[in-house]
Specification:
Blueprint lengths: L2 H23 L4 E5 L12 E10 L2 E9 L5 E8 L6 E4 L6 E8 L2 E8 L2 E10 L5 E9 L5 E10 L1
Length: 156
């Protein structure tokens, strides 16, 4: 195969790959509200919203907005490459670095850390109808015993 053809194909793949990835991400784009009544915490927040958007350059922007029962608001965000490389997260009390991959067009897998230590692993899965998202969270508690919980989200 001539070198010029190989070079042309390589450039074509590099130009098309971000568009294909963005097309796959569209299922996640928008705002999602968690069902706070099902959160396994003594005093769940009043609301939690995740917003996924185009982060530019083939990256995904993830924002998390929480309103507690007293009306206090917090905002965290990260712009993440989907190649598994670490990305800085700001505004969160329990996450300052994340890495993410997208093994299928309806699944995002995120590893999170805080202050140089692992925090949790999260798997976000979009329903067939695109209206619901489940978030499976695996973390480790006392004695490094793994614990898994699932949150239910609805697209707004």
């Amino acid at each position: 195969m001539p070198r010029s053809l190989i070079a042309a194909l390589s450039v074509a793949v590099l130009l098309v790959a971000p568009a294909v990835m963005a097309a796959d991400l569209h299922r996640f784009f928008g705002s999602w509200q968690v069902d706070v009544s099902k959160l396994p915490v003594p005093e769940p927040p009043a609301s939690v919203t995740i917003t996924w958007a185009d982060g530019g350059g083939g990256k995904l922007k993830m924002s998390v907005d929480i309103v507690d029962r007293r009306g206090m608001k917090s905002h965290a965000e990260a712009t993440i490459a989907l190649d598994g490389s670490p990305s800085r997260a700001v505004g969160s009390l329990d996450v300052d670095v994340v890495s993410m991959t997208m093994p299928s067009d309806r699944v995002l897998v995120m590893g999170a850390g805080m202050a140089g230590n692992p925090s949790n692993t999260r798997v976000f899965t979009i329903s067939d109808d695109g209206k619901r998202m489940s978030e499976t969270i695996v973390s480790h508690g006392p004695g490094n015993i793994p614990a898994t919980r699932v949150n239910a989200w609805t697209k707004q």
